[in-house]
Design goal:
The chain folds into two domains: 125 residues, 3-Layer(aba) Sandwich (D-Maltodextrin-Binding Protein, domain 2); 102 residues, D-Maltodextrin-Binding Protein, domain 2 (3-Layer(aba) Sandwich). The protein is 42% helix and 23% strand. The protein contains ten helices and ten strands. α5 links the parallel β6 and β7.
């Protein structure tokens, strides 16, 4: 009789251990930045999906709550919430947060119509093109210097949507925009037949990593960021990470 009892006891411990692992939860602040983050998208956007899946890989569930950006940051900074998604890592933020490995990339590219033959390697290649851009947006030091000197011709509009309309009507030749934000807008603005007319050049104009922030006010977060990075690596190695972003760029996160 001892062996069956021992077997049942071990099995019970395994079940309890499994339940405890699955019930571990992390609370993260979130904000509106579609298609990366949004209450109106499936999985709360592609970056939210990546973070949730990476944590699930290591047995941790995620609770999100959406706030205005300044409040989302402050709540995480104080340790009222465990952390926040997603931010550009800076030396200033490093004082208060642990940074994860990159969850996404803030990649800025040139969009153009598939019917337009376009290639570039240097800003000198753009001198005969009319470039769409958005008022007050920063596209990096090189872009700013070339625009200021008049080496490139830039037509700035109030909104990204306006430039996509101009691009479709061939009133501009190319449009500089965040890669994922651009495709999200295209699929929001146009039916699939029209959306398929747009493409982008692969060479980035500007690129920066986007990471998960976990507050240094909470001792547990030093270990949690390591667990998260392990789960994120698993997600990337499995191919699901790329699948999520491919799906997002095809408009498949729309509810």
């Amino acid at each position: 009789m001892k062996k069956p009892i021992l077997f049942v006891s071990v099995l019970s411990l395994l079940v309890i251990s499994s339940v405890c692992m699955a019930s571990e939860k992390i609370r993260l602040t979130n904000g509106e930045w579609p298609p990366y983050l949004s209450e109106s998208l499936k999985h709360y956007g592609v970056a939210s999906h990546v973070v949730e899946s990476a944590f699930q890989n290591v047995g941790i569930s995620v609770e999100y709550k959406f706030f205005p950006w300044k409040r989302a940051y402050t709540l995480a900074q104080r340790g009222d919430w465990d952390g926040s998604v997603i931010w550009t890592p800076t030396n200033e933020r490093k004082k208060d947060f642990y940074f994860s490995d990159p969850v996404a990339s803030d990649v800025t590219v040139f969009f153009h119509l598939r019917s337009t033959l376009f290639d570039w390697k240097n800003f000198s290649d753009l001198k005969n093109l009319k470039i769409g851009a958005t008022l007050s947006y920063d596209y990096g030091k090189s872009f700013a210097e070339n625009e200021k000197s008049g080496a490139i011709k830039v037509d700035r509009a109030v909104k990204d949507e306006t430039s996509f309309k101009k691009l479709l009507k061939k009133r501009i030749d190319i449009f500089v925009c965040n890669l994922d934000v651009g495709y999200n807008l295209i699929h929001k603005m146009y039916p699939i037949e029209t959306a398929s007319l747009f493409t982008n050049h692969p060479l980035p104009v500007k690129e920066a990593p986007l990471v998960l922030l976990l507050s240094k006010k909470l001792d547990k977060n030093k270990q949690l960021i390591e667990k998260f990075n392990k789960g994120l690596k698993q997600l990337k190695d499995s191919g699901k990470f790329d699948e999520y972003f491919d799906a997002s760029r095809q408009g498949k996160y729309k509810k």
